Amino acid sequence: MSLQAGDAFPSGVVFKYIPWTEEANDITACGIPINFDASKEWADKKVVLFSVPGAFTPTCSISHLPGFITSLPALKAKGVQTVAVIASNDPYVMSAWGKANKVTGEEFLFLSDPDAKFSESIGWASGGRTGRYAVIIDHGKVTYAAIETQKGTLEASGAEAVLAHL
């Protein structure tokens, strides 16, 4: 069942990621993947979560991710504390994608949804890959959730759409 505005963000949502560190900022540096308990970490925060079918893919790298990077100040001005991107790529790829885009710190997270487990649980995955969607979570409650229905579009999941719903 898909997420809808008014739903509680599911419990037990755990992603994998490699925390950003200054000493491992080089794109070739590998960190150690750890679990990120999103249900717990985001319970008392305002969060924008967006999902892409794959890191380093055309629409994701040319439009989707850059839109959120550019919009980070506007998102922060609307009270967003964390922006997170997920894909079914492994944590090493997600970490490298963040480094390739010069994103530093812990306010913008690059998370792995292994085997698209979370995305599958909300019905927004296909063939083991995450769909293209966006979710706004405000202190554990979903206030916006939408998936793209047309390939390569950002009408529901892009930064502009998310900003319009904050």
Automatic annotation (TrEMBL):
<dbReference type="Pfam" id="PF08534">
    <property type="entry name" value="Redoxin"/>
</dbReference>
<feature type="domain" description="Thioredoxin">
    <location>
        <begin position="3"/>
        <end position="166"/>
    </location>
</feature>
<dbReference type="GO" id="GO:0008379">
    <property type="term" value="F:thioredoxin peroxidase activity"/>
</dbReference>
<dbReference type="InterPro" id="IPR013740">
    <property type="entry name" value="Redoxin"/>
</dbReference>
<keyword id="KW-0575">Peroxidase</keyword>
<protein>
    <recommendedName>
        <fullName>Thioredoxin peroxidase</fullName>
    </recommendedName>
</protein>
<dbReference type="InterPro" id="IPR013766">
    <property type="entry name" value="Thioredoxin_domain"/>
</dbReference>
<keyword id="KW-0560">Oxidoreductase</keyword>
<comment type="similarity">
    <text>Belongs to the peroxiredoxin family. Prx5 subfamily.</text>
</comment>
<dbReference type="GO" id="GO:0042744">
    <property type="term" value="P:hydrogen peroxide catabolic process"/>
</dbReference>
<feature type="active site" description="Cysteine sulfenic acid (-SOH) intermediate">
    <location>
        <position position="60"/>
    </location>
</feature>
<dbReference type="InterPro" id="IPR037944">
    <property type="entry name" value="PRX5-like"/>
</dbReference>
<dbReference type="GO" id="GO:0045454">
    <property type="term" value="P:cell redox homeostasis"/>
</dbReference>
<keyword id="KW-0049">Antioxidant</keyword>
<dbReference type="GO" id="GO:0034599">
    <property type="term" value="P:cellular response to oxidative stress"/>
</dbReference>
<dbReference type="GO" id="GO:0005739">
    <property type="term" value="C:mitochondrion"/>
</dbReference>
<dbReference type="InterPro" id="IPR036249">
    <property type="entry name" value="Thioredoxin-like_sf"/>
</dbReference>
<dbReference type="GO" id="GO:0005777">
    <property type="term" value="C:peroxisome"/>
</dbReference>
<comment type="function">
    <text>Thiol-specific peroxidase that catalyzes the reduction of hydrogen peroxide and organic hydroperoxides to water and alcohols, respectively. Plays a role in cell protection against oxidative stress by detoxifying peroxides.</text>
</comment>
<keyword id="KW-0676">Redox-active center</keyword>
